[in-house]
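Below is how a single chain appears once it has passed through the pipeline. First comes the sequence as given, then the structure the pipeline wrote out for it. We keep one example in the README because the format questions we get most often are answered faster by looking than by reading.
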Amino acid sequence: MPSFHYSAYGPGGGEVSGFVDADSQRDARERLKREGLLPRTIVAAEEAAAGGTLGSLRRRVSLAELCLMTRRLATLLGSAVPVYEAVATLYAQERPGELKNILGRVRERLAEGLGLAKALAAEPRVFSDSYVSMVAAGEASGALDIILERLAGFMEDQDAVRSKVVTSLAYPILMVVVGTGVMMFLLGFVVPKIVTIFEQSKAALPLITVVLIKVSRLVQSGWWALALLAAALVFAYRRLARGEAFRLRQDRLLLRLPLAGALWQRLILSRFAKVLGLLLVSGVPVIRALDITSAAVVNREYRACLARVKEELIEGGSLSASLGKSPLFPPLLVHMIAVGEKSGELERMLAKAGEAFEREFDATVTRSMALLEPLLVLAMGVCVGLVVIAVLLPIFELNQLIK
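Resulting structure:
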């Protein structure tokens, strides 16, 4: 008989876990209920055993996989296939992996009589609050297939933005790594061998050569101290990052950076407008939509502002007036929201604003990367050139002395 690992809430409200033998997840859930336990998660024992590092890597579900699954589910539901049969079909055609395991658990919950939103909510690592809320709104309105199509399109847009950022940063990061490696090799291995010639000549050395020799000796003999310092800085940062106040100051600093701050703000505003618009058009109430959007916006400065906006909305204020009080939201976005509130097309105006900010982000990233790449090449050339000059100047002076 198969064995399942479970996590459940006991009679006193405390969380308990263990193993139970059952024919299926459904049977295991029934057994736990008979014992007075409220199941939270039930997974196969062999799946729970793969909880190490490799297992955690295997269990990740990419955004592209989730997009494809959502679009396939929307297509099946749009073809009048019942929800349980649609999920069972996706489970049957999915390749072995974490997504197949999740679909299997969702199918089991649907067989027990749960709705799709509640079945997905039990997998919070994969399905976010915004995802579950839109599915719940789709179930309530009877337009689940349409909302899933919109959701799939939104996630595809987010995946495209993420891919663009990763692709744009790949070359600069490679240049920095290669340049640092070249400089460390020159200072640690090449320069020390040449320095012995200058020391034997006992001639006065140019200032640039003296500085190069000192830096080379520091790299050669004190590399371990530099490594310890770097490790200590990383450890201190991780300790400080656990505090909410430090993270809030860090998020504020990110918004004030010369170029990256403006890019980061456009990306946040695009995500805010798109998520809020998608939630509202799906039928999610505005207060609940603001809660979910606040969680989706990763910057804590914006989260604090949205918390104040929500309080003002509860007291009867308008969204545009509340957002207009904060410098975090530009006048263009506030004006478009005000127009949407007056015309009754707030969802459409938010979608247009989100697309506008995303286009600005794409254009700024393209221009910035086009400028950054030659600057990095120039900086790398200058660093290597300084080393070459520092080495050649004393050689030229020795030649003059010999003549």
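The domain at 260-360 is CATH 1.20.81.30 (Receptor-associated Protein).

See the next section for the split statistics.
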